[in-house]
Amino acid sequence: MADAIGYNMNTRLYLDDLLQGQRFVTRTYSVDAEQIKTFAYQFDPQPFHLDEEAAKGTLFGGLAASGWHTAAITMRLLVETGLPLAGGIIGAGGEISWPNPCRPGDILKVHSEIEEVIPSRSRTDRGIVRVRSETRNQHDQAVQILIARLIVPRRIDKASLPTGPME
Amino acid sequence: MADAIGYNMNTRLYLDDLLQGQRFVTRTYSVDAEQIKTFAYQFDPQPFHLDEEAAKGTLFGGLAASGWHTAAITMRLLVETGLPLAGGIIGAGGEISWPNPCRPGDILKVHSEIEEVIPSRSRTDRGIVRVRSETRNQHDQAVQILIARLIVPRRIDKASLPTGPME
Description:
- The structure is a homodimer of 167-residue chains.
- With 167 residues, chain A is an alpha+beta fold.
- Chain A contains five helices and five strands, in the order H-E-H-H-H-H-E-E-E-E.
- Helices cover 25% and strands 31% of the residues of chain A.
- Chains A and B meet through helix 2, helix 5 and strand 2 of A and helix 2, helix 5 and strand 2 of B.
- Strand 2 of chain A pairs antiparallel with strand 2 of chain B.
């Protein structure tokens, strides 16, 4: 059932629907050199993200995507097919790391797991969900690990709402 | 002196040059609605990043930049005028949060401070520097706080290197 959730864009999950251990997998995304350079030129203009030859003499040993490019691609995958949350994917923050470089030719997919569901004490209409999202390449190596704190609305119990005018 | 370092692109700092408490400030960067929508369309296609009207009914209450867009802008500012590190700005990972939304019209500037300098035990040629970078708007409100772990090379002591051929 968790598998099905990941691919059904019509399912919208509230805090009350989420459980520790639930998993979601996105579609794949192909990264090429042109995308890597275009992003880097705009946001991270360093030799190892811009030019194959210049990248050889650096710590990366070859062209690699900016970590923020990997983060942005991960977000796109999560928004499109990864986490069908009611209210959208709204991050309060998180921890991020890049255990392996993302290279031209990589085919990425994001594997997410709900780590914790924390109803808000002060706001009864929402809570925080801690989600671990691993962005893996075609060799199943993690190019990014993100442990995000997402703000998720609660399912409103209509019976408990004040009665409004008829529509 | 710390102020001067931030603006001199010819200064390249090694691990040995960095000290806890050193500060660096970037130039400013103006964010507009068009940039916010362009980034969102490509990487974070959610209503509150794409459309002023649709954003009104969401948690953001109006158009706001994707957090990953703020992160990407922050990186550009750090690369261009923020942290003149030898070897470039190479992140191993970090913690990120977005305390306030970044809005159209915001003028951003990044304030960084070295929190810790950690020479590697296994690799004598490098170390990790923990840097806190606050991305602030024109009202001095933080729109992003990033505590990054950066990989920084050590200054090589030429006297200790094996003697090579004369050039």
